[in-house]
Design a protein that fits this description.
Blueprint (H helix, E strand, L loop, with lengths): L4 H21 L30 H14 L7 H15 L7 H8 L7 H15 L24 H12 L6 H20 L13 H15 L15 H13 L4 H10 L4 H16 L6 H4 L3 E2 L3 E2 H16 L1
Antiparallel strand pairs: 1-2
Helix pairs in contact: 1-7, 1-10, 1-11, 1-13, 2-3, 2-13, 4-5, 6-7, 7-11, 8-9, 9-10, 9-11, 10-11
Length: 317
């Protein structure tokens, strides 16, 4: 498969719009829902992130994107182990690391394997009785760039599940990441938003539940504010992000709607940005938002575009 220019722009958008949304939401995190008339802009984040600096959402996505850009397969256990090692190094002095993610990474001294990481995530889930935070969905945006060619849906679902379960074991995480990644893939290839058609990729016993969640977010008039309570839960973050896109007139509108939803604003906007960017493309983002965006590991917007291009060239198409 050779990507057309619009398809390549949409692949770039899946990464770039997510980073922009993450940075936009940083200063509003844990705040109340905002009115539609409230301006949304970059500012100093709640955890001290600078103006235009992305947070943990995009930082954790970067080793995934870099692996794809190097031509690596996300279905390879050794590649997944290297991603976890990169996360562990990042977490040592990161401004903010999700509680569940930090607990898993802290248990991984010494050599890391995919099985060890998944085992640590499973242990955290067993002790707490749940592990449904939104920390896996927030970083999943780049995954689809490695699986854009015909017939790669099953490998994409496998990669999305395995990467989610490196830190978040609960089925809700895997299901949300599979649906989101397949929706990003579909949007890059076609320019269309279509989440419902991806439900067949889930285990049959869980499809009706996710159909209900998805249709609720797609309902006319739905807004991320409707899902702001407990949007640290992956299901509510999924719904808030989808509602942000569904009711939007543009990529920027989707990001602003996500931020105005309140509470976990950076994460919901990062999630929304990955799919909104796949629908609308990177060129839909104005320079005033793209130019300031930056973050770990010392990357900027132009670097995200270059990495996205390499990922598509070496793995996605």
């Amino acid at each position: 498969m050779t990507l057309t220019a619009p398809q390549l722009d949409r692949a770039r958008g899946a990464v770039l719009a997510s980073a922009v949304g993450d940075a936009l939401g940083s200063q509003y995190e844990f705040g109340p829902p905002l009115s539609d008339a409230t301006p949304v802009s970059y500012g100093v984040g709640v955890f001290g992130h600078g103006v235009g600096e992305w947070t943990d959402d995009t930082s954790m996505a970067m080793p995934i994107l870099q692996g794809l850009a190097a031509g690596e397969s996300l279905n390879d256990a050794h590649v997944l182990a290297r991603i976890v090692v990169a996360w562990r190094e990042w977490a040592r002095d990161a401004k903010d690391v999700g509680a569940q993610t930090r607990t898993v990474l802290s248990a991984l001294d010494g050599d890391v394997t995919e099985d060890r990481a998944r085992g640590a995530a499973r242990d955290v889930h067993a002790r707490a009785g749940r592990s449904g935070g939104n920390g896996a969905l927030m970083r999943t945006g780049p995954v689809a760039l490695g699986y854009l060619a015909d017939g790669q849906e099953r490998d994409l679902a496998d990669a999305a599940t395995r990467i989610a379960q490196l830190t978040h074991w609960e089925d809700d995480n895997a299901d949300a990441c599979v649906l989101w990644c397949l929706s990003i893939r579909h949007a890059i290839r076609t320019g269309e938003l279509d989440v419902l058609s991806q439900l067949d990729a889930l285990p049959s016993e869980r499809r009706d539940r996710w159909r209900g969640f998805t249709e609720e977010a797609l309902a006319s008039g739905a807004h991320p504010r409707d899902f702001s309570e407990l949007n640290g839960w992956v299901v509510r973050a999924f719904q808030g992000a989808l509602a942000a896109i569904t009711g939007a007139t543009s990529a920027v509108d989707a990001l602003e709607r996500a931020v105005r939803g309140g509470n976990d604003t950076d994460t919901v906007a990062a999630i929304a940005g990955s799919l909104a960017g796949a629908v609308h493309g990177a060129d839909a983002l104005p320079r005033v938002l793209v130019d300031p965006v930056h973050g770990w590991p010392r990357l900027h917007g132009a670097d995200l575009i270059a990495l996205s291009d390499s990922a598509v060239a070496k793995r996605g198409a």
